[in-house]
Specification:
The structure is a single chain. The chain is an alpha+beta fold. It folds into five domains: 100 residues, Rossmann fold (3-Layer(aba) Sandwich); 154 residues, D-amino Acid Aminotransferase, Chain A, domain 1; 70 residues, ATP-grasp fold, A domain (Dna Ligase, domain 1), CATH 3.30.1490.20; 122 residues, 2-Layer Sandwich (D-amino Acid Aminotransferase, Chain A, domain 1); 49 residues, no CATH class. β10 and β11 form a beta hairpin. The longest helix is centred in the last third of the chain and has 22 residues. It binds adenosine-5'-diphosphate. Adenosine-5'-diphosphate (ADP) binds next to β12 and β13. The site of adenosine-5'-diphosphate (ADP) has 19 residues, from β12 and β13.
Length: 510
């Protein structure tokens, strides 16, 4: 399709990110088309979209990853563009190529750029060419298992075996010494082969307790490329982010400029288009090392939106239409501080195991500085089929202190029942000493909470009492009999229960 105003966008995703994109479409007066799998028929993203089409059965590879079917729907409904969100097909160069071939705008970089940067080894080479410091390691994949021990010795232990096609921590192994090196390489190759159909692995020096800091970049098709500041993403579980903030507590204007320019250089080297993220590891002396480029919108993009005031999804659409960026480097002046807590349906006490079931009660916090990007409502089902993210709570404050205070307050207002959630975990982190001082690294969760003793902002008992009290208040106001009149003994028992609950709740509130 020739560039021009986009009229209709198909969103090849589900959950909170599909909703986020639908909202950007509606702000821009664009028709939003949802696709859904059979079990997502009544999902919230389907209800919010202007049109919705079933894309297949529950299994992702038969629905949200079904490239041909998605293209077919886009054609049939007359969509000019496809927004892939994150996950699923977002970093699939083959899908981007299919869109290009079918003259549908893929909202993201060109397929060649995705292919180039999606390969961690290729991306390392591009980074080196663009003059970026990389983590010491190999610039080739390990082919000869007999040579691993001498290669490892040159790099030094501990080291990390990483999959070239990797993502989501898959195919990654930490190796402390020569013992178990060969086994780790072989199992990483196997895991990468089955997860990505590509078993290439390489070595990186394992940095002890680094910070994970990333730079948001944006480039248009007219040669403009800028950076929009950083996001600190060191609060992780299983090497995956859970709480992010901007600015980073360790950032200085000089370091931001250095990292920002490095990120822009890689954007220029790879002829980047649209929104992207350049990830770095930063050591205790503020030395930074290139990690990878994510060629899509990040889960944590709202913290950047909160401090810059820029709608990144709207800007992605503008750039995809062939327009020039609506801001220049000097226009980007971050203001205040933002923290994001990802709210997953997971049980933090069971090593963050996904928690499936029906979300019985879902009540979001609100008030000054609070934004919630959610994919669920009361009654939504969390299934085994997809990523268990339910929502993201993003909080803005004039400074770090104010955003932490508001985050804590908002987390205690958040109510989710029916499935386990990471609300209590997030609360424990926000309240912890290291986080408050801004002194933390990627190993923080494991170091600080070895026993996984995360608190719950409101105990289960207080939660039940609060719920019971609401019912009690309502019944009293409506003058509804609290229990069947025939059984007076039962009646007084029930009434007593609700009264006690209400009193209990008041105690907790006080
Ligand atoms: P994936 O794409 O699979 O998520 P990344 O390369 O983005 O993998 O790394 C994810 C996380 O793993 C990082 O944020 C960091 O916590 C850890 N990590 C990756 N590489 C290294 C390294 N060389 N040294 C220490 N930690 C690392």
């Amino acid at each position: 399709m020739t560039k021009g105003n986009i009229r209709k966008i198909l969103i090849a995703n589900r959950g909170e990110i599909a909703i986020r994109i639908i909202r950007a479409c509606h702000d821009a007066g664009i028709i939003a088309v949802a696709v859904y799998s059979e079990i997502d028929k009544t999902a919230y993203h389907v209800r919010l979209a202007d049109e919705a089409y079933c894309v297949g059965p529950a299994l992702a590879r038969e629905s949200y990853l079904n490239q041909r079917k998605i293209i077919e729907i886009a054609h049939d409904c007359g969509a000019d563009a496809i927004h892939p969100g994150y996950g699923f097909l977002a970093e699939n160069s083959e899908f981007a190529r299919l869109c290009e071939k079918n003259e549908i705008i893929f909202i993201g970089p060109k397929s060649e750029t995705i292919a180039l940067l999606g390969d961690k080894l290729e991306a390392r080479r591009v980074a080196i060419k663009a003059g970026l410091p990389v983590v010491p390691g190999t610039d080739y994949d390990i082919q000869d298992i007999k040579k691993v021990s001498s290669i490892a010795k040159d790099i030094g232990y501990p080291l990390l075996v990483k999959a070239a096609a990797g993502g989501g921590g898959k195919g990654m192994r930490i190796v402390q010494s020569e013992d178990g090196l060969v086994e780790s390489v072989e199992s990483a190759i196997r895991e990468a082969g089955s997860a990505f159909g590509d078993g290439r692995v390489y070595f990186e020096k394992y940095l002890e307790n680094p910070r994970h800091i990333e730079i948001q970049i944006f480039a248009d098709s007219h040669g403009n490329a800028v950076y929009l500041g950083e996001r600190e993403c060191s609060i992780q579980r299983r090497h995956q982010k859970v709480i992010e903030e901007s600015p980073s507590p360790i950032m200085t204007p000089e370091l931001r400029k250095k990292m920002g320019m490095a990120a822009v250089n890689i954007a220029k080297e790879s002829k980047y288009l649209g929104a992207g993220t350049v990830e770095f590891l930063v050591d205790g002396n503020c030395n930074f090392y290139f990690l990878e480029v994510n060629t899509r919108l990040q889960v944590e993009h709202p913290v950047t939106e909160m401090v810059t005031g820029i709608d990144l999804v709207r800007e992605q659409i503008r750039v995809a239409e062939g327009k020039t960026l609506s801001f220049k480097q000097e226009d980007i002046q971050p203001r205040g501080h933002a923290i994001e807590c990802r709210i997953y349906a997971e049980d933090p006490h069971q090593d963050f195991m996904p928690s499936t079931g029906i979300v019985a009660e879902y009540r979001e916090p609100s008030g000054p500085g609070i934004r919630v990007d959610s994919g669920v409502v009361s009654g939504s089902e969390i299934s085994i089929y997809y990523d268990p993210i339910m929502a993201k709570m993003i909080v803005w404050g004039r400074d770090r202190e104010e955003s932490m205070e508001r985050t804590e307050r908002a987390l205690t207002e958040y109510r989710i029942s029916g499935v386990h959630s990471t609300i209590g975990f997030a609360c424990s982190i926000i309240r912890s000493g290291g986080f408050r001082k801004g002194e933390y690294s990627t190993g923080y969760v494991d170091h600080e909470f070895p026993d996984r003793n995360f608190e719950c902002p409101l105990s289960d008992q207080a939660r039940k009492a609060a719920f019971a009290a609401v019912i009690f208040d309502y019944m009293e106001r409506q003058k509804i009999a609290i229990a069947p009149k025939r059984n007076s003994e039962k009646q007084s028992g029930w009434a007593q229960y609700y009264r006690n609950s209400a009193v209990n709740r008041l105690d907790k509130v006080r």
